[in-house]
Structure formats: structure tokens, C-alpha cells
Amino acid sequence: MLFNIMTLVAAALVVCVRSQILPSEAYNHSAVLKLGVIKLYWKFNDKYITFEVIAKTTGWVGIGFSEKGSMIASDIIVGWVKNGIVEITDRHGDLNGFPPLDSQQDIKILGGKQYGSWTMLKFSRQIASCEKDYDIELNRNTQRVIWAYGNKVPIGDDITPQDSHGTNRGVKSLIILTSLEKPYDLPKGPEYKTFDVLANNVKIPAAATYYNCRIHRFPEFTKKHHIVKVEPIISEGNEEYAHHIALHRCGDVLPNKTLLELDDNCYSSKIKFFETCGKIIEVYTIGGESEIFPDIAGISVGAPGDPIYVQLEIHYNNPDLRSDIVDNSGLRFTYTSTLRKFDIGTSYIGVVPFGSQTFIPPGSESFQSIGQCNPTCLGDKMTTSGFENITIFSVILHSHLAASKARLRHFRNGTELPPIASDEHFDFNYQRRRYSNATVKNTDQLVMECEYNTKDRLEVTEAGFGTMKEMCFAIVYYYPLINLSYCFSSVQRRLSWSYLGVDLGKVKRIDEENPDLEAFVLTGPDKQAGKTILEYMNELDWNTKNISQFQLNYNAMEHYELCYGSDRSKPTKTAFNLTKIANPYKESKRKCHQPDLDENESWST
Asked: What does the pLDDT average to over 107-122?
């Protein structure tokens, strides 16, 4: 009987192994393009990148790189294994749908095979664009990776329009060239332990956007430890609803222990203790993965002055207004008693997220929102914390659905340095960490920019926490720790409203807690009396010329900076004008490398 059971188990294992090809080597990067169907592996050096794609088909397999996720103007690679021979071709997308061959084949076939019902293809290419007409240079922007496969190999020597993929296709956003500064493993030697901070059976309301908050107590450490790794724990099936998770430090004295058992809207005024939860400790955004911190730094816990109580904030995105979702998502922390040299800090840099201050006209193809963090805030917080500079090691660029581009720029003495983080193809559903090693001095400026496309919108888009509203900020991770939670800036509403024709003497605020345009009502002139400022702005003639003029004047207006320390209820406010860029940074374009015929290692990564 035991022998029969073991035989059945062994047979099941053989079937399992044969059901999918394993990658031919270890890779630092991988992505599931479609669960159970197709997976992509890759690695790269400064010139070349190697891909390995494994798909559940015995036909042809294709992947491509596209700015907008369509086949048009995309860079495509298609291959197959026929009679044991591997063919991989360099192609491009055009208006006809079928991808023709490139006139120049810029890939190197490294392998391929069929095994059972699966096909593996392995190839290498240069990171640079070696054919100006069709190849796309790979970079650190979000890349739309398109994929498709057919059920049969070509009858002849090449695929034809008859070799259709049908519905076997898709697109996925990926950052192909993540920075080489990213650590992948914890150092060996120290002892590591973990603890979780999780939601507790939160029933997500039938609302498009909901922010749920819950107070937790950190473990009672007997001495100082460092958190060295953080990973998201997302309830199975809730991946598309948990848009971001943030952990904030709260006050050290909890007025009532029953608060540890309560869930509520984060921005409700019912739980006053929420107002003490200001300093950001950690953030996860949709599409994110585990974060291993640099060997030199960790988040301090257990020492005098370290967090005791924390607020777990989860932003739920529920566009279908479902009322049957229960969530237990959160964060897992790995910590050690082996201390590192520096403590880690986390701060927000960007644009004031209030609709009355920050708004975007409808019908704009590229409206820019700018938040500037000056030495009056960033430098002052460094100096008062006892440091002349900080090192930013990772950044999350955050915005919402209308954003098309986002970048965190870095200025020193009027000269722009390389951007700390930049994404020219921003995707709301794929907001991943970008790794850096940037030294920021106490005399430097950081400028957060977002560009928005509102061509499909008929009304003004306000800044705010809802998904259909907009935000523009960077979450920066750095060491050593300084006393800075937020550095936001914007234009005074009195200036932008006056430019748009609002008589400030005839405005009444009807809701003191609401920071949006709908909280302000016009009392005159007669034709406008009773309208909210939002209704008034929606009736303006937002043609291309007026949008352009508003953009120019808006950026020229006096801005103000809000600088928050650990207590977010007491910011300092400073007026300033946006810095005129004397020497903008220009990124050099990669050059196509011409390897010698005998340079075998040139295609190896």
C-alpha cells in the first residue's frame, strides 16, 4: 500500500515538473505576464540585457516593448522551436497589426527548447537602440511589455498574418532596468526575526475610494533593533483593491487602549488620536515588492524615542463599488539586534494635496504641477538634526490616473544634477520603488514634477485623496534620519483664483474641514451667486490657449512651502518663487556598441 502511494506521489511530481520549463539559469529579475501561462526572466549589465521567456504553448511566442501598450510603434521579438531548431526574430509593430521583420536583426539567440506543452526562448540584445527606425532603447521608465503566443509553429520559415494569436495576448507594466544599487539579499551572519502589522477583517465599504486606519502597538523590545526588510502581505484576491499601505508613527501616549481595536476612516475627526500620527515609517504601493534596506542603515525600533504606537493606513480602490470584500492586508517587518551605522528616515516631497490650492484644467494634454522643497525646509531639518547631507537610496513616485509623467529633480547652486527618480511613462497601477544613491546637501533643492493628461475630462480635476482626484509627490527613503515628514508647496489660492476672475471679497467658505473647491461658495455677482468655486471653474472656457496661459502664469505666481516635522499639525509656512533653471540636466543617449567578432563575452550578462 505504501509503495503504491509513493508511486502515485512520484508520478504526480513528474507530471508537475514536466508541466513547466524551469529557467536555464538564475536571474535577478522576473515577472509573471499571465499566471500559469507566460513568465519573463531577465538580467543586464551596462550594455546588454538577456531575456528568457517561458510560455505554455508549442507554437510561437512573442514579447515586445511599447510606450502605450499597443503594437503600433512597438519593438517586438517573436520566436519558436521547430524540429528542434530555435528561431528568434527582431520585428516591429505597424498599423496593419502583423509585425514585419526589421531590416536589421539586433538580437542574439542564446537558446530555446520545447518540453511537454511549454516553450522556452532565450536571447540577448543591447540596451541601446541599434536601429533608429524600429528599436526602442530600454531605460528606467515604466515599460509596457506586450506579449502574445500562437498555438502552432509557422508552416514555412517565418510567421505570416495567418499565424494569429487570437485572444492569447496581453500587456504588463514593468521597470526593466532597475538600478544596480538595489540590494537583493540580507547579509549573512546576523540573526533575523519578523513581526506583522495587519488589518483585521476590514470590510471594505461600497465606495470608490476608502482610507481605513487602525492603531497598532509595536512589539516591546528590550533594546534597540534595526528593521532591515519590509514586505507587503496582501490578502489573496485583494491585490487590485489594496492600492497603497502606509505606516505612520503616532503619539507615545495612548489615551484609551480601546483605540487598538477600532477601524475608521483615516480622515475622520472621530478619533482624535489619528491627528498624532504624522511621521511616515514605511509605504507599499500597488505593484510593489519587498524592500531590503542598504547594509549601512535600518529603521530604528526599541530605543528611547522610537515608535511605540503606529497607524496602519490602507487605501482601498473599489471602482465596482463591491460590498463583499474583507481584507487582512498589511506589512511584515524583518529586524535584527545587529545594529547598523545609520537610522533610516522617510519623507514626502511634492505638491500640496488640497483641491482649493492645486487643480488641473480639463482638456489638457500636458499640464504640469510642481512642488519645490527648499533649504528653508529640507536644509533646516538637516541642520537642526545635526547633519549636512543625507543619502536617498530609494523613491516611490506617486500620482493618480491622469498622470502621464513624474520626476523628482535635484538642484545644487543653480545647476541641475541627474534626477533622483524619473518616469516618462507613469502608470497609476504600477508604482514601484526606484533605487538611487544620491547625496543631498542642506543647500540643495528637490523639485517634484507631474504632468497630467486630462483630454478625456470635462471638469476640473482637484488634488485630493480620491483616485479620480490627483496627487503629486515622492516618498523618499534616506539616511541618516532627520526630523522631516512632509515638504509640500503650491500656489496660494487667492492668486490663482484671482487670475481666473474670482472676486475674493465675494467668497464664503461653507465647510471648514473640507479643503476642496466645493467648500467655497460665491456670494456675487448675481449671475454667479450660489455657485461653488468648483462649479464656477468648470464653466470657464478651457481652450488650448487659455490652458497654456494659465500654466505660464500659475508657475510664475508666488508659491508657499509647508514644512512638517514629526508633528504634522504644526507646519512652518514660507513664501517663495519657483527657481529658474539656469543649467538643466541633459541625459546622454546610449550608444549602440559594436562588439568585435571574437568578443564572446560582449553578449554575456
From this structure: 96
